[in-house]
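Re: beginner question about structure tokens

> Can someone show what the tokenized structure looks like for a real chain? I only ever see the sequence side.

Sure, here's an example I had lying around. Input first:
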Amino acid sequence: MKEAYHQFCQENKTLPIFFQDWYLDAVCQDGDWAVATVKQAGKIVAVLPYYLKQKGPFKYITMPPLTKMMGPFISPAYRTEKSFIKICTALIEQLPNVAAYEQLLDYAIDNWLPFYWKGYQQTTRYSYLLEVSNLALVFENISADYKNNKIKKAKKVVSIVEDRSIETLYRVNKMSFDRQKIAIPYDLAFLKRLDAALVEQDARTMFFAIDQSEQIHAVAYLVWDKQCAYYLLAGDDPDLRKSGAGILLAWHAIQYTQEVLGLPMFDFQGSMLPSVERVRRQFGAIRQPYFFINKTNSKWFDLLGRLKRTWKI
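And the corresponding structure tokens:
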């Protein structure tokens, strides 16, 4: 089935990067991925890739690290109201019997009724998108504070380079998690594996904001597909945050998306944190709702999860 899915990936130009078979190979290292498919006239027209993991006696479906969306992808020609319900239901019915299921769905899925009818639950989340074809208009819509203070100030302090290592990016990226006392959800070995896959596909670049003393103020990691660039990772040195380098890097990534990649859309990636939402809004980004779908079939697995969360507290 993965061979047929590989062909589907090659043929569907609007398929997001997170659905690509090579991307899933890179991020699903602690489990395995599989895919449900629906065919019409012998051709795959819809897919639902999923990441299957094992915890003790329990099998469950979850999101791989650094994978911002999965769930059903239906070829545009089959997204009519009537076809969608039938196709999406057929995909859901192919999912294996697992203790629990959770996925973040592609933005194109704006109807979760087939999941609801199968006993799943939904929470709406938000990402933040910019249409970047007109950079002058994008810059005009950035808040005055960011335009006239942070970006201008940062340009006087740092320059932006792309020739530092993935190890350096990880180190600075991790500082942002450490500052918030949050465990980083991936290690360096994982990131290097993903980075190697992205380099092979010519689908990423790294940005580093450095000063004259070679201090790295902030980092950013940009990936892309044929439709959009995604601000996958970012981070800054807590002792150097006042330089505004993190804001400058975001603006640089937006410019790169339009001027170098020639792509129309820039995705800041979702975050429900108030401090992060404010930054996205200051750039004039538009909220994009998307669905978090989940279902627990095992009360013992649910209890294990509740206990684990209690232990962390």
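Each token stands for a local structural state, so reading them left to right follows the chain. The CA atoms of residues 72 and 192 lie 28 Å apart.
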